[in-house]
Structure prediction request, 349 residues.
Amino acid sequence: MSKLIVMVFLISILLVQSSAGNIPPNIWTFTDDYFTAYGSPEMVVSIAGSPEYDRDETSTILVRVMNQGKITGFESEDKPVGSNEIALSKIEQQLEYDITTAVGVVACLSAEDAPVDIKTPPQSAGTLVSGQVSSPLVFEIKIWDSAPAGKYTLEVNLTYQFQKDVQVDGNASNNQIDYNMLYQHVNETHEIFIIIKEQADFEATEVTSDLLPGKPGILSITFQNTGEETASRASARLRLSDPLSSTDYTAFLGDMEPSDQVQARFNIDVDPDAIPKAYSVKAEIEYEDAEGQMRISDIIYVPAQVRDQEEGMGIFGNPLLLGAGLIVIAALIFIYMKRREGGSSSGSE
Prediction:
């Protein structure tokens, strides 16, 4: 039984050692450590390309990671004795310069309080020696459609390791050398900035309709510029589908400054077999932005209410109601005249 326990223990040690990958296990106490270098990697994170985005935009952000690590000091520890130790100390001295290399750099982008959704998981930048810049790390982002214009902070979390210390042992003459390295894990956060540009934005604040089956009518929509930028030479355009149609589906709104409201009226034709209900109509605004570029807004959905034919007729459109109304009015006039004639006869006597 004891032999079985020993075998299981040895197998577990081998499994742990094999899972360490290419990074040697850390040894916290070195003997014959000839040198100690002081320094570390120094990571700089930046955006490649323009940091400006539109609201409601799905795009990519390119993140570069640069290592500007420096050696700040070098100290001699144990004095080598004999030709073998001198050779080993020279090898160790060269290896100590790797203290500025960042091994296994992984970048994770997070939005924090910014109105942005991050679609891409953490990305690997590999191993970066001092002075090396990573290839751009591509992160897909989605700007919220309700995002106010402004400058926002995104956080880039970096994790990596670097060689804190190194010690060599063995026989240098026949190249039988053992390398023992101490690695330190680093977890650090960097900030990058994006800009959500000012732009015009629109919504329908009031909608009225006078629509009946089989008749032309008016659809009135009040549009408001809810954005931060003036929309120059703006025009509203409708996208209609059965049972609604029009030969006059555009309306000129003019220059709309932020918070401006403009009413647009559209002539709408309604099919005779249209069911009385509210139909969804798509509207969009075409305008010129501050840079002179023509833009088209997001789709604005508005309800166009088609009323029942009898509801639209009222008392004047319904012959029965109109006839009854005329009879009532005639009777009231007759009673009034009779009373007036009676009053006049009493006065003459």
Remarks:
- Confidence is low (pLDDT under 50) at residues 1-22.
- DSSP finds four helices and 20 strands in the chain.
- The CA atoms of residues 171 and 252 lie 88 Å apart.
- The first helix runs from residue 2 to 18.
